[in-house]
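[Q] Does anyone have a clean structure-token version of this?
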Amino acid sequence: MTAPPRRLIEAVARQCAATPHPALEALRSRLSERYGGNLQAILYYGSCLRGGNPFDGLVDLYVIVDDYRAAYPGRWMALLNALLPPNVFYMEQKLPEGVLRAKYAVFSRNDLEKGCVRWFHSYVWARLAQPTGLLYARDEAAAEGIHACLAQAVMTFSARVLPRLPSAFPAAELWERGLGLTYRAELRAEKGRRGKEIYQHYKNCFDNLAAIALAEFPGVHLDRSAGETTFTHPPPDRMADIGNRLAWRLRIIQGKCLSLARLLKAFFTFEGGLDYLIWKLERHSGTSIEVPPRVRRYPLIFIWGLMWRLYRQGVFR
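[A] Here you go.
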């Protein structure tokens, strides 16, 4: 995998330097207290970052720790985190402006690096290739390491998506097509237009990241003569094209399985996990969902029938 150039790391660092919403300080304080010296960094991303209002929805956070064993009082949660990272938790904080709600995913620094570089599935590198905020870093070395991970996520995203693009394409197609592919590789409620919406929101940032990252790939040429960032590259040979198509099909299968496994695990870690899941599906799909009483009483037994029905109805794919 191509390593990120220094220019890309610096571009990501400038992006992370944006001042976070003041209300997020309450979340940072609680997480710092909870994880103490084991806490390396806190990242925030997703719809609340894009919208600028952390009270409108659920704040998405990545909590980066040194070691899973040190992060939990018992071995069971540490083992779950190591076997299928991340563990996901819910947290809320009452403030004068309202109730701040967040879900945070716990990664070790080692797993974060592997997720941005070596993971076959797009779970980490697709999220962190998008603009991401750095809410907290323990020290300068931790911040530099996080910036390098985010830059590497952009490189991994570009390398995996580039073979699926035509020989000439605008920067928008890299991100819109790539996000569309990665959404298909998870159980997602978002409609097909979500990738386009995200690109339009961060257009200048995405164009800049693409120009820096794709310059590192042999045969890719940048053209800004028409006032729009466009690229040309030689198409992959037949065997490479077949391999890349197969890889994305495998990611879709793998992603559905991993999403179900993480959903099952979240019932043990995410207080109110079922209500959150239904809320998110309703919000993104526009469909009202009724949860049968037996699913609430015995979610681990009956959630699968509900999920299959919602999948057949097209609530998520």
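[Q] Thanks! Anything notable?
[A] The chain has a mean pLDDT of 89.
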